[in-house]
Amino acid sequence: MYLDPQSLAPSSSPATPAPRPLRVGMIGIGTVGAGTFRVLARNQAEIAARAGRGIEVVVVCARNLARAVDVVGTGVALTNDPLLVATHPDVDVVVEVAGGSGPARDWVLAALRAGRHVVTANKALLAEHGTEIFAAARQHGVVVAYEAAVAGSIPIIKALREGLTANRIEWLAGIINGTTNFILSRMADAGLGFAEALAQAQALGYAEADPTFDIEGIDAAHKLTLLAALAHGVPLQLHKVHVEGITQLQAIDMVCAERLGYRIKLLGVARRRDDALAQGLELRVHPALLPATHLMAQVNGSMNAVMVQGDAAGSTLYCGAGAGSEQTASAVIADLVDVARLAGGAPTQHGVHAQPIAAAPAPAVLPMAATRTRYYLRVPVADAAQGCAQVTQALADCGVPLQTLLQHHEGPGGVGDLRAGQRHVVVLTQVALEADVDRALARVAGAAGVHGAAVRLRVELLA
Amino acid sequence: MYLDPQSLAPSSSPATPAPRPLRVGMIGIGTVGAGTFRVLARNQAEIAARAGRGIEVVVVCARNLARAVDVVGTGVALTNDPLLVATHPDVDVVVEVAGGSGPARDWVLAALRAGRHVVTANKALLAEHGTEIFAAARQHGVVVAYEAAVAGSIPIIKALREGLTANRIEWLAGIINGTTNFILSRMADAGLGFAEALAQAQALGYAEADPTFDIEGIDAAHKLTLLAALAHGVPLQLHKVHVEGITQLQAIDMVCAERLGYRIKLLGVARRRDDALAQGLELRVHPALLPATHLMAQVNGSMNAVMVQGDAAGSTLYCGAGAGSEQTASAVIADLVDVARLAGGAPTQHGVHAQPIAAAPAPAVLPMAATRTRYYLRVPVADAAQGCAQVTQALADCGVPLQTLLQHHEGPGGVGDLRAGQRHVVVLTQVALEADVDRALARVAGAAGVHGAAVRLRVELLA
């Protein structure tokens, strides 16, 4: 039921022949690849009508050809040579959904050099090799589109690149890793410890057998690298992102955060600073306390959300599924339709997908010590009263203003066990400098009566 | 600091001259027009870099020329003739931000017939005359872009038209009128009655002196008409939208909804039905009970939010400021940048902005009687026990299954006054047919001991 939109309009221009279908070569037919193929097939008519031309997968590269046949049937050419797909003469656009930042770089560069557009879901590849890859795309007059690389089905790349293009972006903050959001939601809502929550996540398929990339915040850092480049016009600088994962979080911190009116999420933050103390870009991934009543704090399970503050738009929030076969496919296909609509136009049209160009020198990424925010500190102490005095003295001596102080007790059986156990001094500061908090924590560590490593979490008010 | 992106890339194509700026003619320099002018000026360099060319306002039409000079200065041609701007030889795109669905139709059609693109914030115009206007755009090979017509700075039109283009949209639901959201938030959070909350809204500038369009749901209906056409491929059918405003809501309903675990919002719903009872599209604007824990229920004040359920993407949620000078300007300029990027390409590129074409026959809009949802009913009664019996009997006789029943008392001083006053039977049904609820309410109205008109509100679970 493919309709040519041209045929519906009495047009003043001479009759144009129906554009031929956009021919797609896919590298990878796993979760995302299979989802892409399925949705392209199922919604073929709608997609063709909206794109103005059909979109056809003509060749697929898979490691497991038998599995590939199960997904794509017998009408599609199959190969296990990615470079064959990347440079195939009958392909207009290469969909790279195999993942990994090693060989994928070669495949993508080969495709670009052969004059093929590339649509990818590969955040690791672009975070690490994006500078080279986008330059190659620009050089060869083709596009690299990556909506599927960040936040699943939420069209956040398009929102930043186009919907909010009138704005100077002041900051963005995102819950952009579903695995860790699921784990933290279970810790907060079911009182689980980290190990138990991770095990549940693995059992339910929300975490990999090797969950390192997710729980150490690396995946979130890849995605933040892409978002920051788009929003703030900075180069892709993965190595400059300060990264802390969630492995040090304990149930007691979820409980204390809640008592104080907050909820802990793994957050990626890219925030412009232009004050007396620093001018540049904060770029950091770490667990953060969000006000419990804020919408972002209530994005739970494996959902993702990105909030953006623009100077004209004010703040906008985008939430949805951060991963999933068809969810990610939705983003891949949105990019394919964009490419289809390019219709071989001049490179200027490709400007939409080119690496963002900053109009002014891009802000420099600030060192972590220059971060300015509120802090949650938890210090295990031998004696509660002495501990309070020592902690408050250290904060005062280092210029860290205090907001709230709690004395928290946890019996041997954990939170809620009233038997004699470990006491903690829990502090919420006012706005302070990271460097000053570092010094205060160093003093606290040396204080008599402090019983172990202090925990420091940053607060994000999303304002 | 305008950078030509072409100059940064060693390109294999012959050197292309820098594209000339996109020339804009504005009709209207009020709240949205002034905001647009200001943001274009302030973020000129960024916008030019992202668009690949400058964007210049060359002529402005205003009723009050003195006011216009205050906003645009002396470097821009001024006129009070909209048709002069619409057909101006030095204008590429006409920005229509004067509003109203009368003369604006003539200006927009004149612009399109003169081969000018149009960017508009005018939801009333498009809801009423969009069919004719989009047809004229298609006929003349130009675009009509309307991001600013719905949900302020939230790029929802782009999300539906492009970001979610891979999907068959199952339903969408939106809080798309900031005036009524502000009023309902005050009623729920401060316990105000409708009149008092409206007065506060007017005093704070969230409601007009004549608030009819907003409080009667008409503005929301205009916007829903546009969203539904885009999402479901139906023609623009404003006259088929069932519209109920918020003027009948009382503080007691906010209280009862909260007791039941819900929060009341004015909602626009476009939901596909494909079950044994109905096949088509529910299209309705009315106050609705949302589960209090749902993110949508916590979108308060004058904020807007739209939730979309796609068959591949799952559900995505978009929140932000629904109105405001620079917020709406952000959307106008996003459209201008899209037009700038078209760079005079073939009509196929314009397909992105053309009226959506359905690949299959568009679903028919269902009569309201076919609506299937849960209901909140409040019946004022003389005697609580007899009232309960009468109401439950009427529901049972009409096939409306009951979920929860409360007896609610309100003394003469209103909610919380324990002196003898008015008793109400409050019911939450399970899923029921509107037609059956109509019949049940008709029976209840005739029952002895019923003390006044029953209130019926629909529940929306957003699932």
From TrEMBL, chains A, B:
Catalytic residues (UniProt): 223 (proton donor)
Coiled-coil annotated spans: none
Keyword annotations of the record: Amino-acid biosynthesis, Methionine biosynthesis, NADP, Oxidoreductase, Threonine biosynthesis
NCBIfam families found in the cross-reference section: PRK06349.1 (NF004976)
Low complexity bias spans: 1-15
Binding-site positions, NADP(+): 27-34
Domain of life: Bacteria
Family: Belongs to the homoserine dehydrogenase family.
Lineage: Bacteria, Pseudomonadati, Pseudomonadota, Betaproteobacteria, Burkholderiales
Cited SUPFAM superfamilies: Glyceraldehyde-3-phosphate dehydrogenase-like, C-terminal domain (SSF55347), NAD(P)-binding Rossmann-fold domains (SSF51735)
Gene3D superfamilies: 3.30.70.260, Dihydrodipicolinate Reductase, domain 2 (3.30.360.10), NAD(P)-binding Rossmann-like Domain (3.40.50.720)
Residues binding L-homoserine, per UniProt: 208
InterPro entries the record matches: Asp/hSer_DH_NAD-bd, HDH, HDH_cat, HDH_CS, NAD(P)-bd_dom_sf
UniProt region (Disordered), positions on chain: 1-20
One GO MF term: homoserine dehydrogenase activity
Protein's name in the database: Homoserine dehydrogenase
GO BP terms, alphabetized: methionine biosynthetic process; threonine biosynthetic process
